Amino acid sequence: MGKIDLKSGFVNLVGIPNSGKSTLINKLVGRKISIVSHKVQTTRFCIRGICNYDLSSKLKSQIIFVDTPGIFWPKRRLEKAMVTAAWSELNFTDKVVFIHDVLKKIDNNTKVIIEKIFEKKTDVILVLNKIDLLPKEDLLKKISEIKNLYNFEETFLISAKNGSGCNKLIEYLAKKMPLHSFFYDAKTISDLPQSILASEITREKLFKNLNQELPYNLTVETEKWVINSDESINIHQTIYINKQSYKPIILGKQGQNIKRIGTLARKELENLLDCKIHLFLHIKFKKNWMDDPSKYSSVGLNYNA
Predict the structure, then answer these.
(1) At 76, phi and psi to the nearest 5?
(2) Does domain 194-297 match CATH 3.90.550.10?
């Protein structure tokens, strides 16, 4: 058997909130590693997903996709830490993919963000997402508008939800990776610890089942992870809230809300981990959890950003 050459590198997925970055990384990796919600600012820290691609029998490529928090103008400490993490990742990447939802206008905020990205990286790739939701004529206008504004290295039209156009994107990026040995074992799909992924799954269910403002004022931590003799897992999680009044909202009438959220999280975790899960959820009031440095360092965020 002849020598096999290896390529490996990092690709940052950046964009404004709700552009479809998390949906895309899940599709590219082939498994859920990043939570998805229609609410903005769902992703709070950088998540790496690994995709291995055979360019030929003698050339293999590993792409490490980095799903970053959406870029916006932050106000609170947590928001500042999230956006700082997104920008700082650009310093350590081989390729940058800017994702834009074709249903949204290219407003002044978006233009400023794109221009700031070009200041850091000149070879930016454009991915236009949700093309299946826009009539062809409108899509062509959108493509023309963006191409007249910026000199992107390449443009890809995709639907992250159904996978349309994703294979072409993966192949292009696989070819562009530098010659380098693999950073991760071929079986690894993410560097995210299972305990943090479990917390994120529960947080996603809270996002999807609670009213508009509440999700931004809570966080979830996995406190205990016990593997039983029958290989089932006991997972104890704490939902931290910064106002006492949030507790009855999360609980719901006769505990119906938290029961539903727990069931949804447990079923998804069983599917992801391929074993029986016993999930125990606890709610804890901590007025200043957003000002607790440990809540930032545990997921790689800079408290002093």
Answers:
(1) -85, 165
(2) no
Dihedral angle sign, alpha carbons of residues 206, 161, 143, 88: positive
Domain boundaries, the chain: 5-176, 194-297
Q: Give the span between the Cα atoms of 13 and 24, in whole angstroms.
A: 9
Given the candidates 1.20.1560.10, 3.40.50.300, 3.40.50.720, 2.40.40.10, the CATH classification of the domain at 5-176 is 3.40.50.300
The average pLDDT across 39-57 equals 81
Task: List, in order, residues 6 or more apart from 203 with CB less than 8 Å away.
Answer: 35, 215, 218, 219, 220
pLDDT tier, 45 (very low <50, low <70, confident <90, very high otherwise): low
pLDDT digits (tens, 9 = 90+) for 166-218: 999 999 999 999 999 999 998 888 888 888 889 999 998 998 888 666 667 78
